[in-house]
Write a structure and sequence with these properties.
The complex is a heterodimer of chains A (about 280) and B (about 325).
Chain A: H1 7-35, H2 55-62, H3 64-97, H4 103-115, H5 119-132, H6 138-163, H7 167-174, H8 179-208, H9 211-215, H10 225-235, H11 242-276
Helix pairs in contact in A: 1-11, 2-11, 3-6, 3-8, 3-10, 4-6, 6-8, 6-11, 7-8, 8-11, 10-11
Chain B: H1 5-21, H2 42-77, E1 79-80, E2 90-91, H3 95-101, H4 104-137, H5 142-154, H6 157-167, H7 174-179, H8 188-215, H9 220-228, H10 233-261, H11 265-270, H12 280-290, H13 294-319
Antiparallel strand pairs in B: 1-2
Helix pairs in contact in B: 1-2, 2-13, 3-13, 4-5, 4-8, 4-10, 5-8, 6-8, 8-10, 9-10, 10-13, 12-13
Classes of the chains: A mainly alpha (about 280), B mainly alpha (about 325).
């Protein structure tokens, strides 16, 4: 079947490709289109703007509301990603390389947490964080993010670590490298792509969250962009917020698009390897 | 500042390592203890200790942020606890559960959630399988298809939800104008359909990626052999691919089912739960943040937790060994 690469087959596959691409892109292009429309043409229902403007982008960057939320989103997601990847890497190294009792238990616990209904934590975390003074702070969001990112990190990283030819480390030491050198020169470069891929996946997860962000924050101090977006809505009675919402939405989609464009291969391999081989 | 738990985690692990290995293991019998039955060598002991040390921080964070709150939630659910009237806080046993379980809103939300879960997961399985086949086997533009498919996966759900909302807003939206008169997001049936559309658009790629992992396990020779034996492509799909992919399909189904059951973001943006389109997550959120009723909110939290546990358990029971968690045996 793979032998007959006829033009007919190619055209068929090409058509299917086009359907997928259109299906995937239309909603994204639509919101981008809205963000470039002028207030006068916003409600014309046309897919492509008749009059283009950047005013919506100016509006959101003029308001503190969006800029603060963007800073919060970036800071919280980056810190949570960093911590989750470091802790996940430690655990994944132990799982893939060491023999110790309790290993299966850890794998099981991570699996349970991956399946955990996050809304079940909202009420108790709300109360606990209020008592601890973590409510509406960065750590108050970072902690649950780390928790729910860890299973993802551990699974993806152990799948990556299992593929690393660890014998190279021994070989390097045999050739006179110290333990530190062997790690830095041989193992670290081999492990870096896996760590990087995991970091992207974890970042996307944190960047995406809405439930925790809306339940565990109450002010601009720690509100992230998805939450700020949902509050734009009822904000002003005199001005239609649609354009501003769309502009802000496009802004937080840009990093995702960049990741996907540049690291498609890695993201796919990360998601597929972590999923089945456990 | 980010992780006060770490140092204590290490201490706990260190303290634990002392116990099981104990002093007696210092006897230098070098019978490389397989599975830890024979006295452990120094190396083995060090390996164990390192293993625990490395896992402790992750394990501690995960348990501290889930196990403790969920038990606290059980405790809160047994109390009358409304933050607007904190003086009336008292222990009332199972009264909250009676209140919730006899409440029509709860059951409506439960029905909505179930409906969304079943319908979206079923459609996603079919579409996801198609997408997985395209991503895996296409002869042209594989990179482009995969890149495009990752966009719904990566995009912030709230952003996608806004896109769908404006698409269906009369006047503004390209879909609303195409379709019909009236405002689809103000009627129950059409709202639910749009919510499901948004869910399916967002999560089909994830389903497809999980299925593609299974597709990669199908041996190419087997397909060729079936082909030479005269199997049609449908037969190759059902008789060769599907059996090999079964574990991957089950993993994908389980994860997507549990994920679909948590549906929240799309509903929040699309309808805000209006016209009886609330999911259980929406309802729990509304009781907590809007209603500030911690007792009822926690009760719903516990009920959702139990439901999810039942779903997961049923999956594992029904499909036995193929379920995840039996991590190693599915490798071939």
């Amino acid at each position: 079947m793979a032998t007959e690469t006829t033009t007919r087959a190619k055209v068929r596959w090409g058509l299917l490709d086009v359907i997928v691409v259109v299906f995937a892109l239309v909603p994204v292009l639509w919101i981008a289109s809205l963000s470039f429309k002028t207030p006068a043409t916003l409600t014309d229902g046309k897919f492509i703007p008749r009059q283009w403007t950047l005013d919506n982008y100016r509006t959101i960057f003029d308001t503190d509301q969006f800029v603060r939320a963007l800073v919060n989103s970036i800071g919280i997601a980056l810190i949570a990603t960093l911590v989750a990847v470091v802790l996940g890497a430690m655990a994944a190294y132990a799982i893939s390389r060491l023999d110790f009792p309790g290993k299966q238990l850890l794998v099981g616990v991570s699996l349970l947490i991956a399946m955990f209904p996050q809304v079940s934590l909202v009420s108790p975390l709300f109360e606990i964080e209020r008592q601890l003074g973590l409510f509406d702070t960065w750590p108050g969001l970072i902690l649950p993010y780390i928790t729910f990112a860890l299973p993802l990190a551990i699974y993806t990283l152990s799948a990556f670590f299992k593929q690393i030819p660890w014998d190279l480390e021994k070989a390097a030491k045999m050739d006179g490298a110290t333990q530190a050198q062997a790690f830095r020169r041989v193992i670290a470069p081999l492990a870096a792509p896996g760590l990087f891929t995991t970091a992207i996946l974890v970042f996307i997860f944190c960047w995406n969250d809405f439930l925790f962000a809306i339940s565990l924050t109450s002010t601009e101090r720690s509100r992230t962009v998805p939450v700020a977006l949902s509050f734009f809505t009822g904000e002003s009675q005199f001005e239609d917020p649609t354009g501003a919402i769309c502009a802000a939405a496009v802004m937080i989609t840009i990093p995702i698009i960049l990741f996907v464009l540049f690291f498609q291969r890695r993201i796919v391999s990360g998601l597929t390897s972590g999923a089945v081989k456990g | 500042m980010t992780l006060p738990a770490t140092p204590t985690g290490a201490e706990v692990a260190a303290a634990e390592t002392e116990r099981p290995t104990g002093r007696h293991a210092a006897v230098p019998t070098q019978r490389t203890g397989r599975r830890g039955r024979a006295p452990l060598s120094e190396n083995k002991k060090a390996e164990r200790r390192l293993g625990w040390l490395l896992c402790a921080p992750a394990a501690l964070v995960m348990v501290a942020v889930t196990a403790y709150p969920i038990s606290y939630s059980v405790w809160l659910s047994l109390q009358r606890f409304d933050l607007r009237f904190p003086d009336q806080r008292e222990f009332i046993g199972l009264e909250n559960y009676v209140t919730v379980l006899t409440n029509q809103f709860w059951w409506t939300a439960f029905g909505v959630t179930m409906l969304i879960t079943v319908v979206t997961v079923a459609i996603e399985l079919v579409l996801g399988m198609g997408l997985a086949l395209i991503m895996h086997r296409t002869l042209v533009g594989r990179g482009i298809v995969r890149t495009a498919a990752l966009i719904p996966y990566g995009i912030v759900t709230v952003v996608a939800a806004f896109s769908w909302r404006y698409a269906w807003t009369p006047g503004t939206g390209y879909l609303a104008n195409l379709m019909s008169d009236g405002a689809p997001l103000t009627e129950r049936a059409s709202s639910l359909a749009i919510i499901m559309l948004a869910e399916i658009w967002k999560t089909t790629p994830f389903m497809a990626l999980l299925l593609m992992a299974g597709l990669a396990l199908v041996p190419e020779d087997l397909l060729k052999a079936a082909s030479t034996d005269g199997a049609t492509s449908w037969q190759r799909f059902t008789k060769v691919m599907l059996p090999v992919m079964k574990p991957a399909i089950l993993v994908a189904l389980l994860f997507r089912t549990l994920d679909a059951f948590r549906v929240f973001d799309n509903i929040f943006v699309l309808t805000a739960g209006g016209n009886e389109t609330s999911s259980v997550s929406m309802l729990a959120y509304n009781n907590l943040i809007r209603g500030l009723n911690l007792g009822i909110g926690s009760t719903m939290s516990v009920l959702i937790f139990i439901t999810v546990a039942i779903i997961a358990f049923t999956f594992v029971k029904l499909f036995g060994t193929a379920a995840p968690g039996s991590s190693d045996e599915e490798r071939r």
